[in-house]
Task: inverse folding
């Protein structure tokens, strides 16, 4: 009886310690599962800031990145965009919308056979450049852009 | 708890095509409701895709992604019958994991 109580107390103590660590900000819940959220990049309010925070401030223009997006999007809330990179050893792609309040929309890493391409749907507040940044395994950055005209904005409605 | 994702995974040659629709409001934090109050930001922050037990894609997203996000990926070397497991987590700590099997 007494032994059981000891065990329970120990268990409670351990859980408490983890909760305290989370509360203290030592262990963020997201860190346990995946890489830490790149808050600085995603909350950057302009292109330069976003690019800097993903490490791509000096990305070179490249024709190896293909961006498939409509020239004119009627509905800025849903703009279908296909991006792909034919640059060898591309391990990561990021998609940014120049004129959005927070330009960086997404950044994806590819491994174990995943091809460096993705299809996604973007929100666009107004006519803007869509920029795609590719990162290669040796740490080099490349970018390409395409303008999409928006007739009805998708941010803030 | 958010609604289940819709996952479609199919082989095309030696490449698996995976499309996923996530059910999520993706609030930007800039929109105001009818009463003029700002609707707080609520968006998916991280996404992972595992195929056949291996992590193939991991990514982070923010508010510039449309409501009910749709993503398409292609994975070379996957086989019909492999299990696809997709997980997302949002900025409020909500999360969801769904799986599907790659069709031939």
Result:
């Amino acid at each position: 009886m007494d032994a059981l109580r000891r065990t329970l107390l120990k268990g409670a103590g351990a859980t408490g310690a983890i909760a305290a660590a989370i509360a203290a900000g030592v262990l963020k819940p997201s860190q346990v599962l995946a890489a830490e959220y790149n808050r600085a990049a995603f909350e950057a309010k302009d292109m330069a800031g976003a690019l800097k925070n993903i490490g791509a401030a000096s990305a070179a223009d490249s024709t190896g990145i293909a961006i498939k997006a409509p020239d004119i999007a009627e509905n800025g809330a849903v703009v279908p965009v296909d991006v792909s990179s034919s640059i060898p050893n591309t391990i990561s792609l990021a998609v940014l919308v120049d004129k959005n309040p927070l330009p960086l929309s997404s950044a994806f890493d590819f491994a174990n056979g995943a091809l460096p391409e993705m299809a996604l749907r973007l929100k666009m507040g107004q006519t803007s450049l869509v920029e795609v940044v590719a990162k290669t395994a040796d740490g080099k950055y490349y970018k390409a852009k395409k303008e999409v005209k928006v007739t009805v904005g998708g941010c803030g409605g | 708890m958010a609604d289940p994702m819709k996952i479609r995974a199919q082989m095309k040659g030696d490449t698996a095509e995976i499309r996923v629709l996530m059910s999520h409001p993706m609030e930007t934090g800039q929109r105001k409701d009818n009463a003029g109050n700002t609707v707080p930001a609520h968006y998916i922050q991280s996404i992972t895709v595992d195929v056949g037990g291996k992590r193939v894609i991991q990514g982070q997203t923010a508010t510039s992604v449309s409501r009910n996000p749709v993503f398409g990926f292609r994975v070379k070397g996957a086989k019909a019958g492999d299990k696809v497991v997709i997980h997302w987590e949002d900025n409020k700590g909500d999360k969801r994991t769904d799986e599907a099997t790659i069709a031939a």
Q: What stands out?
A: Confidence is low (pLDDT under 50) at residues 20-34 of chain A. Helices of chain A lie at 2-23, 29-33, 39-42, 47-53. The first strand of chain A starts at residue 60 and ends at 61. Chain A has two domains: 2-31, 38-150.
